[in-house]
Structure formats: structure tokens, C-alpha cells
Amino acid sequence: MDDENKKDSLFRKGEEFLEMFRQGQEFTQELMQDNERLRYRVVQLEEELKAKLDFSQEPVALAAYDERLRELENRLVQVEEENLNFAQRYIDVEEQNNNLANLYVASYQLHSTLDYDEVLQIILEIIINLIGAEVFAIFLLDEKEKALLPAAAEGVGLEAIEPIPLGQGTIGQAAELNQSYFNENPPKSIDDLFQDPLVCIPLLIKEELIGVICLYRLLQQKEEFVAVDFELFTLLAGHAATAIFSARLYTESRRKLTTYQGFLDLLSQ
User: Fold this and answer.
1) Average pLDDT over residues 188-203
2) What pTM, to 2 d.p., does this model score?
């Protein structure tokens, strides 16, 4: 199967996955509507019972009416609170479904090519659209130098980002310890952000460090980076690490193959 057919197949699968989530959302919304109708039907029936109270004995009937009215008012408040809670739960579930669907499609995009530069560009686009980042960078580990070298960035030039030795500063320590870092109170200055970013996620394949992704600033329309974003970013980093590793391995293999072929051509002359 050639690359174009492979990409078409991957994107079709992604669309099928999104359609499955859309159907799930529609079904959940229908359940919400049915639930709300049933709850308010209960209130209507109770109102009908209230209207049928016997007022033949005035004091007793009036007391019963007041008691029943209080019960109905309390029940109505409970119904409204339950519906609000249920609606909020639906919004949360819908957001999580959308995030998972987007992550699923993003993972297919990442693994649809073995071109190293294209993989890096796809990661940049995904972080912008899925995470809502404005300024961030991808560092890759140089094992000989024991340092993190900037490989790609958005919102800042690579020349403005210096290599980071393993174990040095927030980013170097996060990489050396293979631990994610989330700063809830990042500094305001962009220069300080380069040393103490908003988020730093190691790129790992099992326990082997490939590099890190550092997020420095969010897009203006994204108010904050919440726990769900952090979890989503962590999942994305796992796919990104695999894609980068595969692309680098493929590129190196092609380069060696070209070198060997050139050497054989020289010998055969």
C-alpha cells in the first residue's frame, strides 16, 4: 500500500471514530431530554394531585394544602438541581469525548508519515489546535552531549532557545528524572518562562528519553491550562515520542542506505 492510500485509510478510520463519538453524544443528549421530560412530568402529576385536595373540612384541608405545597416546592428545587448537575455532567463527558476523538485523529496524523520534518510540523500544529498553545518548543536529546537541543518551536525562533544540559534547571531536571512538570503560577516574563515553563512533558518510549516538549504560553482565548489539558498533553507526548523516534530511525536508515549504495556504485565502476 503506497503512502497516499495509507493516509486515506488512516483518515477514514479517524472519521469513523469521530462519527462513533458523534452518535454517542446524540444518544446521551436524547437521554438527557427524556430524563428532563420525565422529571417535569412527575412535578405536573404532583400539581394535579394538589388541585384535587379535599377542602370540605377547611382547617384540615388548608393545612394539608400548605404541607403539600412545601413538598412540591422542595421537589421542584431538587429536580432543577439534578437537571443542572446532569447537564454539567453531559458537558464534561462531551468535552472528554471530543478530546479523545481529537487525540485519536492526531495520533493517526502523527503516524501517517515517516518524514522527520513533517512529523515535527504535525506535532506543532496539533499542540496549537488541540492544546491551545501559543509559544512552545520541542527539544530532542543529544546523547553524546547529554543535552536537550531545540528541534522545533512556535512563537519563538530556535536561535533564541539555548541547549539545556540534562539535570540543569526545571527543564533539565524534568528530562533527567522522566517526570512531567506543571507550573500553576508561571512567571510573566517570557525570558523567565524559558527557564521555568508552564508545562514540560518528557518524550519517552518506555523509560528511554527522546526529548521534551515545553509549553511557555497559551493562546489568548485559552484562559488557563487545567488538569484535563495536562492529561491530554501527556497522552499526546507518548504518540509524539513514538512518531519522532520512528521518523529519525527511518531517516537515518535511508541515509545509510544511500551512502552504502553510493559506495557500491563506486566499487562497481
Assistant:
1) 79
2) 0.64
